[in-house]
Amino acid sequence: MSRSTLLSVALALVGFIALWTLVVAVSGFPPFILPPPWQVADRFVRAIMDGTIAPHLWTTLSEVLLGFAAGAGSALVVGYALARSALVERLLSPYLVALQATPILALAPLIALWFGPGLLGKVIICALIVFFPMAIATMVGIRSVDARLLELGRSLRATRRQVLLTLEVPAALPSIFGGMRVGVTLAVVGAIVGEWAGAERGLGVLVNLARGSLFDIPLMFATLLTIALVGIALYLIVVVIERRLVGAR
Amino acid sequence: MTADGAMTADGAMTADGAMTAVPATTPRGAIALDDVRLSFPRRDGGRLEVLGGLDLAIPGGGIVALIGPNGCGKSTLLRVIAGLLPLDGGRATLDGEAIDGPDARIGLVFQEPRLLPWRSAADNITYPLELAGWSVARRTQRMTELTELVALDPGVVGNRPAELSGGTRQRVALARALALQPEVLLLDEPFSALDALTRERFDLELLRLWDRARTTIVLVTHSIAEAILVADRVVVMSPRPGRVVADLPVELPRPRSIADLDAAVVTDTAREIRRHLGDPGDPGDPGDPGEQPDDDRAAPPDDEAVA
Q1: At what angle are helices A54-84 and A217-245 packed, to 10 degrees?
Q2: Per the domain annotation, does B36 fall within a domain?
Q3: Residue B1, pLDDT above cutoff 90
């Protein structure tokens, strides 16, 4: 990351905290409605140090990573089939659109009912929420592969597998990674929604506990901060991998 | 020639494609087109006839230039020889064997370099070798030979296509087409995007390459000067549906140079080509009839047709 980028990120962070502080000061909200940033920071550090957050964080991370892997993996296959087969597109499109149009919030309780409060249900919810943007991005990416490059592959007698691995996938990578950027952040949303629908552990559960039985609003904000950091970290990991694989073209 | 680029059956070709001795047998890479017919489907359900019973024989080791008006089927014909388009009728053969699909003995250079933007120049050059299953060590060795063969600056082989000049990109494309030591090199207006001086230099380098490898070359061009400078014969095609309307020998001794374009025989040949193209032009000027690129590549040749 360049120095100017780091500086702009730091400035944005300082600006956000300043705005937050200003809102707290001007509005006069009590800490149980809107705690000031330093109180949240203090609670965040304590929750990390005393191990309050860690078990919930690992649970949520497991759900997100497994769900993202399952959703993205299946979306790559389905997206490719959608791009290359008009029949598959005609058969699957209505179901995919219906799935996307149905709010995951509405599906989550049903999935929790079917698969229980354990890991599997959350992974399924994450996978479902990741699937659509990834499948569409893959479909668009594969369809956008330059026909002239495919002709080059034919002229060099590339096999179907070689065309896929050396032409189609590399050419579609920018689009696929666009889908991954969206998908990985949605996976975090899916995990939290899944945990709210029924779970024993996870950052979504901790948010509910902090707001409810513990009535520890700074902890709730600290947990929200953790969720945001998880999303940012995963997004940045995707960006780093994308830069490495796609690079400058 | 074996698939991995080993020596040819007649033992004439070295690893870098140079000839060590004149082959005793007939040079490989003889192309025969017999009553070749090809059409594309049109949106209205009809067929658009692109090649209408074309006959052409190209001896192994020769250089033939195809010239004709836009949309006459020159590039389509090149794709037929490359095995990329199935025929409606007629027969196309390479060394007596029917061409029924892409063949490792045929190398194709497109009008635009068609380099894979995510690969370095070196990886683009060795792409056909990778597809053919060559080991990394052999690919690296062949890449060095090819770099020398096409006079590519070794300092740029690590660069991606976006970092290369137009001329260097076309050199990379040429090296890629030569990677598997083809018997036939098909060139679809490969230098048309280059400026005039660079284009002349590339034409001379092509001749130098041919002098070393004696690969059969079929060059599609819009430039009469280029056709005469490079080819043994200039084949003039009719407007669509493409047929051969003239097959004119170029009586210019080899090796050739740009200065040869001033010879009287060039003027006579250019006049003949223009006459068959139906272009009155300047009878003494062996210049280009037009610099517009041909638009009749794999896609159907005009707006009426659909793929």
Answers
A1: 40
A2: yes
A3: no
Mutation for A interface: B105, B110, B114, B115, most A CBs within 10 A = B114
**Domain membership of residue B194 as a residue range:** 31-105+182-277
pLDDT of residue B22: 43
Both tokens of residue A91? 């058969």
Low-confidence ranges of chain A (pLDDT < 50): none
Which residue from B minimizes the CA distance to A168?
A: B116
Mutation target for B interface from A144, A146, A152, A164: give the one with most B CBs within 10 A: A152
Q: How far is A86 from chain B (nearest CA, A)?
A: 16
Which position has the higher pLDDT, B303 or A111?
A111
**Global pTM value:** 0.81
pLDDT at B176 over 70: yes
- Which region holds residue A50: left if phi is over 0, alpha if psi is between -120 and 50, else beta? alpha
Query: Does A165 touch chain B if contact means CB atoms closer than 8 Å?
Result: no
Angle, alpha carbons A68-A70-A72 (nearest 5°): 60
Q: Which residues of A touch B84 (CB under 8 A)?
A: 151, 154-155
- On whether residue B13 sits in a domain, the answer given is no
| B297, part of any domain | no
| Residue B293 scores a pLDDT above 60 | no
Split into its structural domains, chain B has a count of 1
